[in-house]
């Protein structure tokens, strides 16, 4: 194959560059004519990857302008209740796309004149348009939440919170007070959670907390998200931080901390924590439930029963205290049964005097637990076994009915 002259190569290069510039120009003409954003985007897309045009501000300014223009048009229709079907989804997509295109164009927008002076062509318009839509990012995030577009809500809130810190927008947008921004960070965390972006959710919870948001619901949701993500260290950190704030009203935090160390089999640490909590608040029934479980884990069954009884005294309506005391009696009955004599005559007497009373008492407390909380399946499961061992067919069937068997 013959080599083309250098002039021809340059000509071909120029032709190729002009072809891609024409793509951008065609998209610009469509944008100025009011074409839909998706149509403009389709027209300009080849220019995104071409070496001659991918670093031109115009390549991204054009679709960005089209996206914002379409958003504005739909916003006008919304004000007159004439928004088309899926209009809110399109508005969300337009606002986010417009922002992303413009932010790609902004650092590329430099024009050097014949004197070597750097000027900008699109920057003023870009900053003005984005700043003019600043409040819209929060508004569209709220709309996105309402239509369950959680990822879009997260992204729109991210723009709303971070834009005031961008030097390019200094003096153009005014940051909201930290109390409002912290609330938005919290909502953003929930949006990330709903879209299964758990790490982003935890980051947003931390940012909300750093801005002073320390409401109980933050710790509750953050612990739930961290648990789902199997991030035990995060669960521990949130629980430890919540403990001095809300530990008295909600024992789940001490429970979470103890559970962390329980998994590591650090029983001394566990007992130290719960004993300290009891010393501070000796009337908290749930603390005795937690310590009773710890005693059970370490096979100190009498101490466990004593703590569960104490919890019931403090709160007779605690289904966990009632259930655990009934469970402890059933487990004691199983252990006593394992030591039963082998002869039928002795076994009958042994069962009547030592085993049956335990199951009768267990059934009483388990019934109370199930009465307080009918959804306590664990209580029903032990209750089923208790009635089975008591040969009470009627009550056994009743429990099975309650369990949906």
Short description:
The chain is mostly helical and 405 residues long.
Architecture overview:
With 405 residues, the protein is mainly alpha-helical. The chain has 19 helices and two strands. A two-stranded antiparallel ribbon has the order 1-2. It is elongated, with a radius of gyration of 34 Å. The model is unreliable at 1-17 (pLDDT under 50).
Walk me through the topology:
Layout: H1 6-32, H2 37-49, H3 57-79, H4 87-105, E1 111-112, E2 118-119, H5 123-132, H6 134-146, H7 150-162, H8 178-194, H9 198-210, H10 216-228, H11 232-246, H12 252-263, H13 267-280, H14 285-297, H15 301-314, H16 319-338, H17 344-372, H18 377-389, H19 393-402
Antiparallel strand pairs: 1-2
pLDDT < 50 runs, ≥5 residues = 1-17
Name the structural class. Answer: mainly alpha
Q: Taking all residues together, what is the mean pLDDT?
A: 92
Order of helices and strands: HHHHEEHHHHHHHHHHHHHHH
Beta strands, count: 2
Distance between the termini: 83 Å
Core attributes:
19 helices; about 400 residues; mainly alpha; elongated; about 75% helix; single chain
């Amino acid at each position: 194959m013959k080599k083309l002259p250098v002039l021809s190569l340059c000509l071909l290069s120029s032709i190729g560059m002009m072809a891609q510039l024409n793509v951008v120009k065609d998209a610009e003409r469509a944008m100025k004519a009011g074409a839909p954003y998706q149509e403009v985007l389709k027209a300009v897309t080849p220019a995104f990857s071409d070496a001659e045009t991918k670093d031109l501000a115009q390549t991204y300014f054009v679709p960005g302008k089209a996206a914002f223009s379409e958003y504005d048009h739909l916003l006008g229709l919304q004000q007159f209740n004439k928004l088309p079907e899926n209009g809110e989804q399109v508005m969300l997509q337009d606002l986010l796309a417009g922002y992303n295109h413009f932010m790609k164009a902004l650092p590329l927008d430099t024009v050097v004149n014949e004197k070597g002076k750097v000027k900008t062509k699109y920057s003023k318009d870009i900053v003005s348009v984005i700043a003019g839509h600043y409040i819209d990012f929060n508004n569209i995030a709220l709309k996105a939440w309402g239509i369950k577009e959680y990822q879009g809500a997260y992204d729109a809130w991210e723009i709303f919170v971070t834009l005031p810190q961008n030097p390019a927008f200094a003096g153009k947008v005014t940051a909201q007070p930290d109390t409002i921004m912290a609330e938005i960070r919290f909502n953003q965390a929930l949006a990330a959670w709903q879209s299964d972006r758990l790490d982003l959710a935890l980051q947003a919870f931390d940012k909300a907390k750093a801005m002073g948001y320390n409401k109980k619901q933050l710790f509750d949701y953050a612990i739930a998200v961290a648990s789902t993500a199997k991030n035990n260290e995060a669960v521990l950190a949130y629980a430890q931080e919540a403990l001095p704030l809300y530990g008295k009203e909600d024992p789940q935090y001490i429970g979470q901390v103890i559970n962390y160390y329980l998994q590591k089999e650090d029983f001394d640490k566990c007992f130290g924590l719960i004993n300290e909590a009891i010393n501070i608040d000796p009337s908290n029934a749930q603390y005795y439930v937690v310590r009773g479980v710890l005693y059970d884990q370490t096979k100190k069954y009498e101490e466990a029963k004593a703590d569960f009884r104490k919890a019931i005294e403090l709160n007779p309506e605690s289904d966990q205290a009632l259930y655990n005391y009934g469970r402890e009696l059933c487990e004691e009955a199983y252990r006593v049964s394992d030591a039963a004599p082998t002869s039928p005559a002795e076994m009958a007497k042994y069962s009547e005097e030592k085993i049956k009373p335990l199951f009768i008492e267990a059934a009483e407390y388990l019934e109370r637990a199930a009465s307080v909380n009918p959804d306590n399946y664990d209580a029903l499961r032990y209750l089923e076994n208790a009635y089975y061992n008591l040969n009470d067919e009627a009550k056994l069937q009743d429990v099975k009915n309650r369990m949906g068997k």
